[in-house]
Amino acid sequence: MKLKGPSAEFRALVRAVNEVETRFLAPYLGPPTLNAPGRRETLDVAAYVVLVHGLLEDFAEGLALWVLGKSVANWTSQRRTTRSTASLLLYQKAPSDDAPSSSVFDNIRKALDEAKTRMSNVVFDNHGIALKDLRALFIPLGVNVPADPVLTSSLELLVTMRHQWAHQDRRHAKVVKSAVDAKTTVSDCLNLAKRLSTEAASVRP
After folding, report:
1. What is the Cα–Cα distance from 63 to 57, expressed in whole angstroms?
2. Structure confidence by residue, pLDDT tens digits, 123-159
């Protein structure tokens, strides 16, 4: 995965989502009707939701890895600390009392290397974009996850719909949305992703 920074990661996400929208939603985005979505529209919306969920997950993980890599590199190459550095060290355990003495620079470098390994595992073991997943990825990196209730509600709706279709959940009735509703939900999710990208960049890792 080639990481290019928050703005580039977000632009790539938007391009990919637009491609999926054109493929699966375009035929149904005409004038609104009072009719319930037909079976074909329902299945195309389901495919759209599953694919967009995957794109958002890939975006979040790529963004987290970028922040992590920049934070560690800035200390090792420039001896510069940021909010992200401090947050990473906050979540890192203290060295043992019998650790061999070394310079302060090396102590911090080693702690950040360990934090990088730990957080990389968190990223690669991630399997979702629910709020709890995003907070597990970004709070230890010093990046706030947007808390706008409208945007987070849309995110949770997307997660619910994806889970129901991807795992064929038989315990509950599926949340069936029209193509127009799905587009609105994903638009909110993209706004959340944009805010997350901006927040990651503002940390100046």
Report:
1. 10
2. 999 989 999 999 999 999 999 999 999 999 999 999 9
Three-state DSSP string of the chain: CCCCCHHHHHHHHHHHHHHHHHHHCHHHCCCCCCCCCCHHHHHHHHHHHHHHHHHHHHHHHHHHHHHHHHHHHHHHHHCCCCHHHHHHHHCCCCCCCCCCCCCHHHHHHHHHHHHHHHHHHHHHCCCCCCHHHHHHHHHHHCCCCCCCHHHHHHHHHHHHHHHHHHCCCCCCCCCCCCHHHHHHHHHHHHHHHHHHHHHHHHCCC
Both tokens of residue 176?
């069936």
d(CA 69, CA 184) in angstroms, rounded, equals 34
Sign of CA dihedral 88, 94, 100, 104: positive
By C-alpha distance, which of 107, 153, 150 is closest to 130? 153
CA count, 13 A, side-chain hemisphere, 17: 26
Q: Taking the CA atoms of 131, 55, 143 and 84 in sequence, report the sign of the dihedral they define.
A: positive
Sign of torsion, CA 73 76 81 83? Answer: positive
Which amino acid makes up residue 102?
A: S
State pTM to two decimals: 0.91
Average pLDDT, rounded, for the chain: 90
Domain boundaries, the chain: 6-29+37-202
* Rg of the chain in Å (alpha carbons): 20
Give the CA distances from residue 60 to residues 93, 102, 176, in Å, rounded to whole numbers and listed in that order.
25, 36, 26
